[in-house]
Structures are given as structure tokens and as C-alpha cells.
Amino acid sequence: MIYLDNAATGGFKPNSVQNAVNAAMRLCANPGRSGHRLSLALAERVLALRELLSSLFGGYGYDRVVFTKNCTEALNLAILGVLETGDHVVTTALEHNSVLRPLEAYRRAGIIDYDVAPLTGGSLSPAAIAALVKTSTRAVVVTSASNVTGEAPDLAAIRAAIPPAVLLIVDGAQGAGHLPLDMKAQGIDALALAGHKGLFAIQGAGALLFSERVNPRPLLFGGTGSESFLLDMPAYYPDRLESGTLSYPALASLYEGALHVKAHRKEYADTLFRLTAALHAALTALPGYTPAFRPNYCGIAAFSHEKFSSEEGATLLSERFNIAVRGGLHCAPLVHRQLGSFPDGLIRASFSPVQGMREVNALVGALRCLSATYS
User: Does pLDDT of 105 surpass 80?
Assistant: First the structure.
């Protein structure tokens, strides 16, 4: 199979990641929850991962790195754990449902209100976000990169355009590992990460990094291995937000994946830009196809055909050509409304940085055959 669904879950795992998971499965304990040497040794590895992620993303220290099972959980912590009654939020039409649904749930409950900044020519303007800010605005929530178009907003410019007191919460699901995200340099107060995409980890590894201006309330309650004499959650981070057993195999994979990103991010990003540029040029020349993306560093390429639906196209690519892509709305309905692709959605191909023109040419050849079938 030619796997072009890397924006959903990365198909390539470096040998170091695979070896770390295998080692964790052979010799595993509960990190830091017991006093024996193995538990303490694994706790030290978890602490090293916190420090690595804080360093890699310009964070605010190891204690402000909290582990989750995915980016969705991290975003829920950042949104539902921070907002108060009467708060207003500005978000954007680029966002995933991991942002939109928590906001909508709080809006329907009468806790908050929010506005959505529109796109202009497929791009997000910092001025459009700033124009929606009110005196009651507590946070701006924005993606690091669209999972549909690959559009990467200028986070530093957004930070500069909004009042200093407003929190900047960033969905790093697509950008982390591909883009140079730096919380302090870009003024990001909370950054949610998905380990299993551009960070090369296995599924089950997510994280939320946050500044001293953000103090999320716990959404889960339970054992932490600390202050067990209390019936309240510990008052300090990260323990306050990490109830229950951590997935050590997933975190071991994230440690090695983050090291791999540190060594290869720039060259990998350049590869993804080159592949999406090649596909964009090919789609522009193919009859019936319309690209909905520009060349980008995240490897994302969504497009449509005038004669068949996105779901039909994705199914045919899988069944006839053994090429894995994704059709539909990609859990991001507002960007499709802006692009005019709602409700059918788009076919999305998303590349791995270890792929090349072989995969681009195979996809283009398959698309040419499908187009001929429907001509």
C-alpha cells in the first residue's frame, strides 16, 4: 500500500521509536507510582521527556508539560480547564472539531460565547482575529496548520495583533514536528501536541504545554502517586492534571520521536514542501481536478474532482490502486464551508517526509485513470 494519510496518523516510525516501544513492552512498570528502582527509573525517563519537549517547543519548564492520550484531550484541558463563566473566545474557520466542539459545548451550556474569524482567499488574517476581540475575550484559539489545506497562520503576528492579556492557545496537531513552533518567541500560552503525527510517536502519546498565565483545572480525578492523603487533586503541576497510569510505551516512543524531529525537522519540512508543490502542479494540469491547497511544509494536499465525490474518490484509490487517502470533511467543517466544499468534502493526500516523487507519481497516475473513467 502507498500510505498517504499521514495527517491522520504518521505511517513512518523511525527505528529508534520502534526499539523504544519494544524495550518498554519487555520491561515496564508504573512510572513514579511505586518506590522500587524500576518505577523510579521510568519516572526519570518521563521527566527527561518533559524537559525535552519544553526545550524543543520553547516551553516554560518540565512542570508545565502534561501528558494526555492525544491532542484532543490536550485541547479540552486547555479550553474547558481554563475558561470561566462570561468569557469570550475568538477562534477561526480553520479549526478542527477538537477546538470547535468544546467551545460549542460551553456555549450551549451558557458558560461562554465565541466568534469565528473567516478566511480571505484561503488564508487567515491576524487583523480578522483582532477585529473580533472584545473586552470579555479570554483567549484566541488557533491551529498551527490546517489539516485540510496545510495553511499555517502567522502565530507571532496573531500574538502581536491581540491584547497582551488575551491568552493564545494553539492546536499543534499538524504543525508540531514540521513547523518551528516556539512558545516564548511566538507568545503561545498553551500548545497542544499529537505525538502520533509529525512527532513520529505511536498512538496514545499527546501533551499540553502551558505558560505561567495558564492554570487549567483538572478534567479527570484520581490517583497521582502524590499527596495520596488528600481527597483533592494535588495543587501543583503536572500531577494536578495527570490522573491514572501514564502510557509509558507511548511516552518512550514520543521521547525518541522528538529527538528524531530535533535532528531532521528542517530537511523533512523541505521535502514535504517539494512533494506538495509537485502534486499541486500536476493536479492543476489534470482535467477535472481542483486543488484546495498551496505547497506547504506539513505535507497536506486536499483536492476535488468535478465528476465524483471525495468519499467515492478515496474509496476508488484504495480499492483499485491500493493508495490510502482520506475523503470527507476531515473533522473540520468550517473550513469546507469557507472553501465551498461542504458538505461533500475533499480528497486529502498527506505525505510522510520519507516519501518522494515515487508516491506523487503513483497518485497522479491513479488520478489520471479515474478522471479518464469519468470523462
Answer: yes
Per DSSP, what are the bridge partners of residue 66? 208
**Rounded distance, CA 139 to CA 368, Å?**
45
Residue 99 has pLDDT above 80, yes or no: yes
pLDDT over 80 at 375, yes or no = no
pTM for this entry: 0.97
State the pLDDT at residue 226.
Answer: 85
The distance from CA 23 to its chain's CA centroid, rounded to whole angstroms, is: 27
Q: Spell 31-47 as b/e; 16+ CB within 10 A means b.
A: bbbeeeeeeeebbeebb
* DSSP-based three-state secondary structure for 278: helix
Instruction: Specify the residue for cell string 505511536.
Output: 202
pLDDT reported for residue 227: 82
CA gap 259, 51 in Å, rounded = 12
Q: What is the dihedral of CA 92, 97, 99, 101, to 10 degrees?
A: 110
Sign of the Cα torsion 20, 57, 165, 332 reads negative
Q: Half-sphere exposure of 202 toward its Cβ, with a 13 Å CA cutoff?
A: 16
Of residues 153, 154, 198, 156, the one with CA closest to residue 176: 198
Element (H, E) at 190: strand 190-194
**What's the CA gap between 39 and 32, in Å, rounded?**
5
Task: Decide the pairing of beta strands 190-194 and 167-171.
Answer: parallel
What CATH code is assigned to 2-9+264-373? 3.90.1150.10
- pLDDT > 80? residue 139: yes
